[in-house]
Task: inverse folding
């Protein structure tokens, strides 16, 4: 039996763990040689993580259109069978998701049903934190799952833009050795000095850099560290090849669309960023959900469709995998205000040229519920571990603290 | 001891209770003891500024944002505005969902009225506030099949904190809070008895025919509430990770007073821990605090109405009436992410470009060190670190003092983007 490079890396990681050289979260000082082999295997693979914030109604996203009980529970909200974009005889996508349907038909979209975690938390913020840290059973975890991945593979000194948050912040990149920058507009992402002579500008930049150096004061040292991250990332981004537009049809006036376009530009420009995080708000709908949800999904679908096309046009689509999740799904039964309340498990999307499209996971029963909510069938950490092992070539067990089932979507 | 002298204590107190602590402002309190200063700040006459008139559904929210920023800049009672801002981040609502900014103006008036008032009353009043009813769907919470949105956030975010209620409590509280509707055309809130569930509910082990008043009173009476609110205010005004003993003490003052916010603040501001090393420069200024503080230092520069100010506040991460979600704004280090930090720095550049000698005169006939001290006193940054001070002096020396405008713009730019100017 030949050992592939990936097998070696994963098994190497497990070996070190077995020797007890790791902390509770597997934060071992990753052997440099192994890390190099890991990144050499697929140095160009990129993961884009999209969070749909507010608790996306999973049952109205991937619709179990063959089940009468779905229609019984949702007299005003259910999507009619004939309107769902049929994936097979059991499931269909929300009618807003036409671009996703196209990608699905092209075999590049994996839809994972019933993704969740044990003892679900119905708080938006706690649940988001659980998805971002990948540690459901501990509070105050100070690292995110991709932050731990970063710590195993690089440092901010080596690559200040190894990870980028575009738009709103999260805990996903919180790390011990890395500080991932956040960006919205490249034009504003620098120390602007408008009206000054060249010499004065230079003097100000110099003084600024010197002010933002190490200091013994605890809070000031945090401020200076953050300022340094900003400056280092700014230098990298401002000196990157020109960011070109692709004239792909991103939805007008959508911040989410702008964020995805920026990510495509960065990838196209060859920025050495391997993981991106961005989010789309607007899923915290609880009344008159039918219209609100359709609009939110439409914005999501238009932007993601444009992003996918953009990557193809730029010739970089084979390097990018996109993960889409929401912190939880919704209650099966609708409420009196034509909406749904906080629930549990929901669908996850993974798309990209490297993805084996199709339906994965066991759809939770709509009748055997956990106080009105779906019981998860796939642990979200299985999705992460598959992406880490098979796409980012990083030891999932060291990032996640234990082993999870590998899924077949890659 | 970092806050050793009385002067340092007053400066620290003014920074936390207001937006600036200049030498001139500090001088006004010089003859008083610290408890006297605290009393003076807490008992400053309450303001009730009127929001702009003729707001309608179509009015741009920036009208309201500008009005509030100007209110903060010009108020004689900055603590009341700071508390209003605090409650807006706590009992938050967003124009994106409420849509009618007149209702957000009403909510802002309510938050200001109760800014230093009774927390139990505030909790009840915000529960039946029109903007809140819309924002968290209690407006459509009906007996038939309740909408749990408000009930959950009321306990998770507004009063008790995660882990201090059960899923059953959420469902029962949702039932108890049914019955309210916003008449959007008249901008009035009405109680509609036939959509209220008047049956018995069991909330925190007590069974009763709970209505809204009984429910909010009963939630506030839960021991977790006083601790949760006291901790949040401690963190907002003093420092993160407070010791349990400190929280116990201020929580007791809060409960003993019958949930008076002023009594809680008084206990915080008079405590020894508030002036300990842990408290000194322990807070990151929020973008609104940062911007308001700066604009109030240069009263002749009118930038509140400028679109660039609005855009840069957005980049910094905080536009009033536009919180990212129901938990308000993430504070602390989150304000210091790269893009928000550049937002701050670039706002300062935008501001200093407008300055002329009459807006903030600088006496270039003084020696660099004296000149710097004078500017620091006027900005309220006299306790700058040695490192930053050395850099600024070096900048002054390199630039020479011949070009007044260069000095004014360059020095103020550097001072206001210095690490110290981001914190308080």
Result:
């Amino acid at each position: 039996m030949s050992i592939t490079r990936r097998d070696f890396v994963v098994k190497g990681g497990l070996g070190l763990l077995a020797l007890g050289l790791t902390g509770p979260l597997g934060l071992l000082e990753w052997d440099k040689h192994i890390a190099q082999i890991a990144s050499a295997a697929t140095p160009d693979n990129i993961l884009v993580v999209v969070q749909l914030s507010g608790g996306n109604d999973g049952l109205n996203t991937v619709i179990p259109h063959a089940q009468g009980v779905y229609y019984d529970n949702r007299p005003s909200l259910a999507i009619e069978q004939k309107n769902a974009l049929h994936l097979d005889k059991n499931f269909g996508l929300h009618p807003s998701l036409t671009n996703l349907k196209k990608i699905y038909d092209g075999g590049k979209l994996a839809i994972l049903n019933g993704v969740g975690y044990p003892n679900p938390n119905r708080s938006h913020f706690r649940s988001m934190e659980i998805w971002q840290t990948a540690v459901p059973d501990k509070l105050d975890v100070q690292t995110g799952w991709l932050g731990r991945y970063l710590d195993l593979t690089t440092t901010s000194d080596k690559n200040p833009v190894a990870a980028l948050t575009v738009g709103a912040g999260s805990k996903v990149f919180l790390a011990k050795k890395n500080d991932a920058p956040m960006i919205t507009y490249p034009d504003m992402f620098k120390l602007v000095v408008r009206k000054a002579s060249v010499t004065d500008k230079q003097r100000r930049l110099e003084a600024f850099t010197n002010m933002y150096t190490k200091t013994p004061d605890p809070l000031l040292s945090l401020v200076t560290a953050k300022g340094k991250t900003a400056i280092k990332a700014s230098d990298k981004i401002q000196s990157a090849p020109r960011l070109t537009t692709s004239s792909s049809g991103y939805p007008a006036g959508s911040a989410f669309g702008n964020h995805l376009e920026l990510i495509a530009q960065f990838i196209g420009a060859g920025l050495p960023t391997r993981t991106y995080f961005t989010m789309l708000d607007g899923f915290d709908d609880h009344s008159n959900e039918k219209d609100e949800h359709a609009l939110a999904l439409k914005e999501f679908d238009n932007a993601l469709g444009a992003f996918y096309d953009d990557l193809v046009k730029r010739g970089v689509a084979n390097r990018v995998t996109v993960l889409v999740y929401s912190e939880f799904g919704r209650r099966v039964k609708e409420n009196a205000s034509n909406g749904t309340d906080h629930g549990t498990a929901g669908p996850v999307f993974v798309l990209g040229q490297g993805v084996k499209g199709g339906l994965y996971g066991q759809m939770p029963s709509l009748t055997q519920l956990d106080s009105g909510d779906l019981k998860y069938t796939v642990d979200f950490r299985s999705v992460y571990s598959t992406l880490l092992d098979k796409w980012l070539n990083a030891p999932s067990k060291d990032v996640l603290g234990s082993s999870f089932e590998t899924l077949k979507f890659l | 001891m970092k806050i050793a002298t009385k002067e340092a204590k007053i400066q620290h107190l003014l920074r936390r209770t207001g937006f600036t602590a200049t030498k001139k402002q500090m001088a006004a309190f010089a003859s008083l003891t610290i408890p006297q200063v605290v009393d003076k700040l807490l008992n400053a006459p309450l303001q009730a500024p009127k929001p702009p008139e003729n707001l309608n559904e179509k009015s741009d929210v920036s009208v309201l944002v500008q009005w509030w920023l100007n209110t903060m800049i010009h108020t004689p009672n900055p603590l009341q505005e700071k508390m209003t801002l605090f409650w807006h981040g706590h009992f938050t609502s967003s124009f994106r969902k409420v849509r009618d900014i007149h209702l957000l103006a009403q909510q802002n008036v309510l938050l200001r009225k109760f800014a230093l008032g009774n927390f139990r009353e505030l909790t009840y009043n915000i529960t039946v506030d029109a903007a809140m009813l819309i924002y968290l769907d209690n407006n459509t919470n009906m007996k038939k099949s309740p909408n749990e949105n408000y009930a959950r956030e009321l306990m998770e975010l507004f009063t008790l904190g995660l882990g201090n209620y059960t899923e059953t409590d959420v469902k029962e509280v949702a039932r108890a809070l049914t019955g309210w509707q916003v008449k959007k055309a008249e901008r009035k809130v009405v109680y509609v008895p036939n959509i209220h569930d008047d049956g018995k509910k069991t909330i925190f082990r007590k069974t009763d025919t709970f209505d809204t008043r009984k429910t909010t009173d009963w939630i506030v009476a839960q021991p977790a509430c006083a601790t949760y609110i006291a901790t949040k205010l401690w963190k907002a005004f003093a420092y993160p990770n407070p010791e349990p003993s400190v929280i116990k003490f201020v929580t007791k003052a809060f409960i003993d007073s019958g949930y008076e916010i002023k009594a809680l603040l008084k206990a915080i501001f008079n405590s020894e821990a508030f002036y300990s090393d842990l408290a000194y420069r322990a807070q990151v200024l929020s973008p609104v605090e940062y911007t308001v503080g700066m604009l109030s230092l240069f009263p002749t520069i009118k930038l509140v109405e400028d679109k660039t100010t609005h855009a840069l506040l957005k980049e910094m991460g905080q536009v009033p009436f536009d919180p990212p979600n129901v938990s308000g704004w993430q504070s602390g280090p989150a304000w210091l992410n790269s893009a928000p930090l550049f937002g701050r720095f670039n706002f300062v550049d935008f501001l200093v470009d407008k300055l002329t000698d009459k807006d903030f005169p600088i006496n270039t006939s003084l020696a660099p060190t004296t000149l710097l001290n004078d500017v620091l006193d006027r900005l309220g940054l006299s306790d700058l670190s040695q490192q930053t001070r050395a850099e600024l002096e070096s900048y002054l020396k390199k630039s020479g003092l011949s070009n007044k405008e260069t000095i004014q713009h360059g020095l103020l730019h550097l001072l206001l983007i210095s690490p110290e100017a981001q914190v308080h």
User: Anything to note?
Assistant: Chain B touches chain A through 64 residues (CB under 8 Å). The mean pLDDT of chain B is 96.
